[in-house]
Write a structure and sequence with these properties.
Layout: H1 2-17, H2 22-33, H3 38-44, H4 51-93, H5 110-124, E1 128-129, E2 135-137, H6 138-141, E3 167-169, H7 175-183, E4 188-197, E5 209-219, H8 224-239, E6 245-249, E7 255-264, E8 280-289, H9 291-296, E9 305-311, H10 313-320, H11 326-329, H12 334-337
Parallel strand pairs: 1-4
Antiparallel strand pairs: 2-3, 4-5, 5-9, 6-7, 7-8, 8-9
Bound molecules: 3,4-dihydroxyphenylalanine.
Length: about 350
């Protein structure tokens, strides 16, 4: 019995000296002081020895238990002290005054900035922001928008078709009109900022990828006056001043009548390079949604009418931030982007 007690005591000392973490210590406590631990085991052997031996070894076992409990408590205190020291050392090393010059700071892309601004303007007028896929079907991009199969926009040179010739990269964000009308009942008021792709040669004002923002409003008795009021409010807020609008007839298969909306140049009084001396800048196509489109999207054109408009978001960003080459917007050039 004495040998057994000596062994247990020796092993406990070795184990507790090896403890580095709270977790190690917990393992040692369970091993020796736990309910099925070494000490419980030792105590249970007392019943098998004689009464005389019990008188000697009983108190010895109790002493051992008290010794282990005390050492365990001491170790807890020691580990806590070490941890506090380490923390103090770490915070002493953290120098808040350190200054690292020449660090690159990220900034928001002009597309993100202008999109956020435009969304805020339309949300303030009660519009919701809708979204749609860039990989589209012929139906959503052309068919439902009253674009007949012989329309030039379907020509191979304009559109990125997938090899299956059934799907394409959307050539405009007007696709989202179709998706929104099919899934909602009027009144509908949405805008959709997003990418459009066309198979174009790239120069300072064209790229195969550009951004558009589609607008759609469907309700009873919607008129061109409603359309122009919304467009004027939008442009005035975006350019921070009251701008005159100029409206010309324009053809888009999905609207009737179709309109081209120009705004008075926000940057000059007598003509500048942005308006090419004309005082007007062409901003968007728009019009009243064609009855065929309403029908195709499950909306009764004898009850409802609506307007749609689709300015180039890329063009608006270039105007607002005075960007002269579209390629800069898509280049990822830090020198350009860090101005924003
Ligand atoms: N989807 C047209 C384009 O890409 C722009 C457009 C014109 C959108 C007239 C409209 C609209 O909603 O009514 O050129």
């Amino acid at each position: 019995m004495q040998n057994k007690i000596n062994d247990i005591q020796k092993n406990f000392h070795i184990d507790i000296n090896n403890v580095v973490t709270q977790q190690d210590l917990e393992f040692v406590r369970i091993k020796y002081l736990g309910r099925q631990g070494v000490l419980t085991d030792l105590m249970s052997t007392l019943k098998d020895i004689s009464a005389d031996e019990k008188r000697i070894f009983g108190p010895l076992c109790n002493q051992l238990k008290i010794e282990f409990q005390n050492l365990h408590l001491e170790k807890i205190a020691k580990l806590e002290q070490e941890e506090a020291l380490l923390l103090a050392k770490k915070s002493a090393l953290f120098d808040v005054s350190i200054n690292k010059p020449n660090q690159l700071h990220g900034s928001l892309h002009p597309y993100t900035l202008i999109t956020q601004e435009i969304e805020d303007i339309f949300i303030s007028m009660g519009f919701a922001v809708a979204d749609g896929p860039e990989l589209e079907t012929d139906f959503h991009n052309f068919g439902a928008l009253n674009i007949p199969s012989d329309h030039p926009a379907r020509a191979e040179s304009d559109t990125f078709w997938l090899p299956d010739l059934k799907r394409l990269l959307r050539t405009h964000t007007s696709t989202v009109q179709v998706r929104t009308m099919k899934n909602n009942t009027p009144p509908i008021a949405i805008i959709c900022p997003g990418r459009a792709l066309r198979n174009e040669a790239t120069d300072a004002s064209h790229d195969f990828m550009f951004m558009q923002i589609e607008g759609l409003y469907i309700d009873k008795n919607v008129s061109v006056a409603n359309l122009l009021a919304v467009i004027k409010e939008f442009l005035d807020k975006l350019f921070g001043k009251s701008l005159k609008l100029r409206v010309r007839p324009g053809f888009f298969p999905f609207v009737e009548p179709g309109l081209e909306v120009d705004a008075e140049c926000p940057f000059c009084k007598t003509g500048c390079s942005t308006c090419k001396g004309t005082r007007w800048i062409e901003l968007m196509g728009s019009g009243l949604v064609h009855p065929n489109v309403l029908k195709e999207c499950g909306i009764d054109p004898t009850i409802y009418s609506g307007f749609a408009f689709g300015p180039g978001l890329t063009r608006l960003a270039m105007l607002k931030y005075h960007i002269t080459d579209i390629r800069l917007l898509h280049s990822g050039k830090i020198e350009f982007l860090k101005q924003f």
